[in-house]
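Teaching assistant's notes for section 4

Start the section by putting this record on the projector. Ask students to predict, before seeing the second block, whether Restriction endonuclease subunit S will look compact or extended. Collect guesses on the board.
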Amino acid sequence: MGQSPNSKNYTDNPKDHILVQGNADMKDGQVHPRIWTTEITKIADKGDLILSVRAPVGDIGKTSYDVVIGRGVAAIKGNEFIFQLLKRMKTVGYWTKYSTGSTFESINSLEINNAVINLPKEHEQNKVGKILSYMDHAITLHEEKKRQLERLKSALLQKMFANKSGYPVVRFEGFSDEWEQCKLGDVAKITMGQSPNSKNYTDNPKDHILVQGNADMKDGQVHPRIWTTEITKIADKGDLILSVRAPVGDIGKTSYDVVIGRGVAAIKGNEFIFQLLKRMKTVGYWTKYSTGSTFESINSLEIDNAVINLPKEHEQNKVGKILSYMDHAITLHDQKLNLLKLVKQSLLQNMFI
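Reveal the predicted structure now:
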């Protein structure tokens, strides 16, 4: 069990001893050095497992370093099977029985030592640990690939749109014209939403899909959640949906004809406009309209008068296409990642007694 050094001995000097106090010092199942100490109390050796004994109780990781451990964790010398078993115990809520009703969620050394587990022979332990470790590795690789794609997409959003000079930093070959400055309302039809009477809301998918705000969108797409028998304002299939209330500026698309409530606006725009609106959200364009307001929102005039820079249509199509491709690649990696996590979860449930 860990024992915290005196706080006066904490440092930010990587030449001192790495201190692991709790979940904040671990990331993706590994110790990530954050605080150091000159005082050695209790230690964990490189390769040991690190169990969180305070909220959140039961989180488990590994250390690739020799570390000092504080009272929020315990060090366990265990193989890959034990590591995966402890992951499963956390998942199924094994430790909950010790902390339910407590003011401060924690487990002690007696509860950890007396935890009842089922062990196969060593050879089977190694086989089970190996396959589950492989799954963890695959998940980590896909998470990193997704992060790389997201960073690349973010960089493209920053560089492929014109700055104050009227020219983008990164451009397709063959394009050199200055982008034209205009207002969003001059190049795209904008329809502000109007909410139906709540008495007309239903849960019947045969009625009209109602989009009221960000809660009705997921991963940049409308996901039907509420329906209505009353038609107020509509967005057609393929329209862009802009959130005009907190969180202001979130943007998505609809694959359905929908009724739109007062929390959103419908915009008839191409892929370039969609990606441009994403960028405007990212750089905080809409913040100037809602800063200091009690209720964060933007109105039709502010949307119509939003100043944008537009290239010729052919360049719009090229920019929109590459950014759409990036979105698609990110979505595919996310789906693969979720599938791998489901497989891993299933294996954790079924490969242990």
